[in-house]
Write a structure and sequence with these properties.
- By secondary structure, the protein is an all-alpha fold.
- The chain has four helices and no strands.
- Residues 14-18 have low confidence and may be disordered.
């Protein structure tokens, strides 16, 4: 059957990242009262109490470190979120511009078809008096074609810019995921160190 000291030691070692500080203090208080009421001056018990105090201080320091790390991470997330929101807003504006330019290009194409149909009608032999009008329509058609070409080139540029923006957002997300993996690895290393520091006082107590 396990002794009271073994039970107390197991409770302190099983306790996680400072979530059971109250239980740790209660266990330490019981051990202290037992040591005070004991007629035999047990040096090992005194050392165990010091070890428990060290574990508590380490847990407190670790909790403070984790809190600061979480605050910094939250600040990074906030900055990244603001940047992503800004990029998304810019992307939406560019999409609206592209839609408007595409609508204009479609209108130009429609007008060109109408001018072509009208030119066919005006070329009939019984309407030779409209040759001047046909010439004017050709000039207008050329201008419309030039305008359409410019609009299509501008639309293609907008598409490339929007693609580059989406690529930038994906890169930012990848960087964030990499940082989360690194922080998780650092947390795992810290946990391994915690286990080593928690078990060392118990081993020293057994040797004494």
């Amino acid at each position: 059957m396990a002794s009271d000291d073994d039970v107390i030691r197991k409770r302190l070692l099983i306790d996680g990242d400072g979530g059971g500080d109250e239980r740790r203090l209660n266990a330490l208080m019981k051990l202290f009262i037992k040591w005070c009421n004991s007629n035999d001056t047990d040096v090992s018990t005194h050392q165990r109490m010091l070890s428990f105090l060290a574990v508590g201080e380490f847990a407190m320091a670790k909790s403070s470190f984790v809190y600061e790390m979480n605050m910094k991470q939250m600040e990074k997330y906030q900055q990244l979120q603001e940047q992503i929101d800004e990029n998304v807003s810019f992307a939406k504006e560019e999409i609206e511009k592209c839609k408007l330019e595409l609508s204009e290009a479609r209108l130009v194409r429609k007008n060109r078809k109408e001018y072509d149909a009208l030119a066919v009608v005006l070329k009939q032999p019984d309407r030779k008096q409209t040759e001047q009008q046909i010439g004017a329509l050709k000039i207008d058609l050329q201008e419309l074609e030039a305008t359409e070409l410019k609009l299509l080139e501008k639309l293609d540029l907008r598409k490339k810019q929007f693609h580059a923006l989406l690529t930038s957002i994906n890169q930012l997300q990848t960087m964030l995921n990499d940082e989360e993996v690194e922080e998780k690895n650092e947390a795992d290393v810290t946990d391994d160190s915690d286990i080593t520091m928690d078990t060392t006082p118990a081993l020293m107590a057994q040797k004494t």
